[in-house]
Amino acid sequence: MPPRPPLCARCLHASHASQTRTYASLQAITPAPPPFQTTTSIPPISRYPPTQPPSHRPPEFRKSQLHRQYTSLLRSSPLLLLFQHNNLRATEWMALRRELAIALRKADALNPSAAPLADGTKIQIVQGSLLAAALRVVEHWHPETEPQAQKIHASDPATNSSAELPNMSSNVADPALHHALSRAAYDVSRRQRLAHALTPLLAGPLAILSFPAVSPAHLSAALSILAPQAPGFPAPTRRANPGYYDLAVQGGVQKLMLLGARVEGRVLDGEGARWVGGMEGGLEGMRGRLVAMLQGVGMGVTGVLDGVGRGLYVTVEGRRGMLEEEKGKGKGEGA
């Protein structure tokens, strides 16, 4: 590379002078800060992100994320089926999910006025110990009854902002923290280790089928695919659904065993789950039968009371007639 030609001292002096004049002009035209920046200070900075508050369980571990996922699943799914799976292969899981989706879409088509549930129904493998811990939190941890986070008032000298901000303590043991991984939730669940009826079933390889709503029709369709049992829940025929009789599907069905269900917070065994799925007409039919039964009871009570009133009226009228006859006879004898 050839060397640069040297610059004279006059050129260097001129260049430096022009740069100095440019900096001076820029410094001179810099605007002053607006008035509100001089009268208010910077608001306080939160000590943790709103999506990740301080946790008793380290949030970077996979177990913590699974615990959070199971807690959300239990709270958002009113109907859960619990299965034991015995070494199902990936192809068998894929085949079972395919046939389950087909059956649930058919159930959606039978009742177009109701909300579709096929897309929101999922079957997944779970860890029994973490599901038991999440179940204890959901059943026994009620954050709405705990003390709420204290608000910092605008006149409090502890803050430089006029906005009321929640308590920003980064202490893990802060009682104002109400999420599922908090210290308070852990303390409550630790005292209730054997207090749930579903705990004895949460052992071994498990899988759960979650529904976004309680629907006997969809439950019946799912049981006909995953746990068929004649005559109430027969498997689809080969003519109606030939794909159900693939080797992968049949191998997966033979390795699944229905253990129980959780319906609206109540624990049911396999027969109880089939009883819910066997409701004729679904929940609407059950409500109709309940209304008819209550109306029949009301009509029966009305008939009984009406009969009692009529009997009392006849008895009083008969007694009054007898008294009038005796009074007439007494007057005749006196005359």
Brief characterization of the structure:
The chain is α+β, with helices and mostly antiparallel strands. It is built from ten helices and five strands. The chain has helices at 9-28, 35-39, 62-76, 90-110, 128-140, 183-190, 216-226, 247-254, 270-277, 282-334, and strands at 79-85, 122-126, 206-211, 256-263, 266-269.
Describe this structure in words.
The protein is an alpha+beta fold and 335 residues long. 48% of the residues lie in helices and 9% in strands. The chain has 10 helices and 5 strands, in the order αααβαβααβααββαα. It has a 5-stranded antiparallel β-sheet with strand order 2-3-1-4-5. A hairpin with a 2-residue loop joins strand 4 (256-263) and strand 5. Helix 5 packs across helix 6 and helix 7 (216-226) crosses helix 9 (270-277). The protein is extended, with a radius of gyration of 38 Å.
